[in-house]
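Structure (tokenized):
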């Protein structure tokens, strides 16, 4: 639909596209982000490209790895092959183009569901001028591509449901659902949590299946057979790309791993299950991720950086301080390491805290982490102080933090207002279900990073655009 709509509004889309590209290029020029994860992805891509080994370099030796899914390394390998090894500037410029394509997909989503040119233009503009999407387009990380494939899969799902267009025939619908699944699969190959989108689409199709036995008067009706077939095609498309990866892991590393390990560890690395479980008994915000979670292993920890909710008693404070002291002392004069014995002590401390307050662990802290990920100023890629609320940062960057925080609140408020107007439109439930599933999942993580909610921004922008259309009759 967007191909027919854009030429009619050529001037708007030209200027809005220039604004979108200009904003993203500003981040690319002044705030390009090539972080540790970027370098790890690049190292895998180089080894894969130059030596045919999907692995990491350690002391000059290339070791096969399964710690990262192959989607982003494959993307980097293509860019490096075309523009030169470690040409991150080319990577970021290509990501700008992907993000611009996401803006057009957002317009298509709004146009399909709301049948409104105003809503489509609003969706495009909200995506084009979103500083959070623009910021991550300038980061050599998976987010931009993940957001693109998430939006593409949602757009194809709506097309498969016949939203906003005349049905194109059984064969066409089958290809659309297969394409939807392949888009989900591409997202999964970038990040394992991309599978949540498949769960959202499957859940929505299941709801339609139940409704198909008693079709609602104002909803399109589908036969149970067509709904089941759509689900099977989407699942097949999403899971098929994982088959080569799974077989490679079985053949090369003798391990059944269709995704990536829970903590992105290789076979020879210690899984810090006890430490991670202990962290989840108190962590609630991104600051603690930077100050406590990320530094382990390798960096010294400061017990004074722990919030008061970390301790239920003076005895727990003493135990925690002793564990930190043991960790900081190091192992055989090497860098600070988490040993199996130390991890077991953290596990025992975690068990004690969970037993004392199970609701805190399973309900209250996850809820706070979800709120923090959604509403925290998204300045983690910028020089801003993450402890913005202490108001001791440089005035310029403090202003950036406050403005970014207000922008995040504005997008959330617009989405809430749009949902009030647009919840009755067919197809909106798919977006809401995906947003809820992903938010609940993110609450279970021990590292509440704001970037994890970016995959939901297509939902926020889409729902917000409903405010600019008429209410369904």
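Design, position by position:
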């Amino acid at each position: 639909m967007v191909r027919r709509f854009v030429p009619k509004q050529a001037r708007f889309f030209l200027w809005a596209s220039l604004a979108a590209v200009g904003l993203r290029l500003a981040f690319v020029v002044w705030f390009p982000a090539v972080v540790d994860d970027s370098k790890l992805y690049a190292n895998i891509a180089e080894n894969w490209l130059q030596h045919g080994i999907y692995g990491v370099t350690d002391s000059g030796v290339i070791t096969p790895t399964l710690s990262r899914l192959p989607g982003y390394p494959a993307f980097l390998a293509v860019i490096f092959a075309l523009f030169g090894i470690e040409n991150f500037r080319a990577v970021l410029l290509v990501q700008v183009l992907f993000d611009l394509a996401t803006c057009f997909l957002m317009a298509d989503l709004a146009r399909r569901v709301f049948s409104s040119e105003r809503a489509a233009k609003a969706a495009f503009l909200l995506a084009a001028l979103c500083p959070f999407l623009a910021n991550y387009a300038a980061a050599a990380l998976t987010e931009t591509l993940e957001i693109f494939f998430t939006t593409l899969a949602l757009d194809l799902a709506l097309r498969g449901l016949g939203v906003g267009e005349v049905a194109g025939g059984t064969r066409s619908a089958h290809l659309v659902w297969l394409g939807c699944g392949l888009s989900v699969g591409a997202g999964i190959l970038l990040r394992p949590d991309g599978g949540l989108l498949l769960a959202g689409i499957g859940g929505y199709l299941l709801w339609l299946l139940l409704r198909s036995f008693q079709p609602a008067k104002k909803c399109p009706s589908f036969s149970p057979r067509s709904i089941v077939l759509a689900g099977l095609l989407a699942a097949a498309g999403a899971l098929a790309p994982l088959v080569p990866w799974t077989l490679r892991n079985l053949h090369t590393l003798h391990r059944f791993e269709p995704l990536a390990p829970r903590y992105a560890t290789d076979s020879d690395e210690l899984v810090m299950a006890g430490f991670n479980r202990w962290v989840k008994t108190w962590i609630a915000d991104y600051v603690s991720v930077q100050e406590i979670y990320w530094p382990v292993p390798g960096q010294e920890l400061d017990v004074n950086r722990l919030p008061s909710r970390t301790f239920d008693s003076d005895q727990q404070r003493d135990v925690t301080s002793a564990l930190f002291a043991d960790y900081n002392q190091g192992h055989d004069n090497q860098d600070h390491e988490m040993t199996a014995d130390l991890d077991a002590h953290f596990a025992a401390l975690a068990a004690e805290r969970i037993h004392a307050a199970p609701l805190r662990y399973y309900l209250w802290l996850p809820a706070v982490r979800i709120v923090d990920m959604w509403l925290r100023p998204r300045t983690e890629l910028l020089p801003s102080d993450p402890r913005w609320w202490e108001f001791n940062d440089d005035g310029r960057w403090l202003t950036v933090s406050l403005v970014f925080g207000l922008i995040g609140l504005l997008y959330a408020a617009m989405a809430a207002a749009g949902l009030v107007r647009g919840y009755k439109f067919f197809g909106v439930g798919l977006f809401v279900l995906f947003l809820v599933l992903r938010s609940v999942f993110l609450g279970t993580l021990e590292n509440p990073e704001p970037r994890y909610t970016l995959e939901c921004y297509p939902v926020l922008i889409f729902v917000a655009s409903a405010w600019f259309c008429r209410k369904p009759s």
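Reviewer-requested clarification: The radius of gyration is 23 Å. The chain has one domain: 2-261+396-468.
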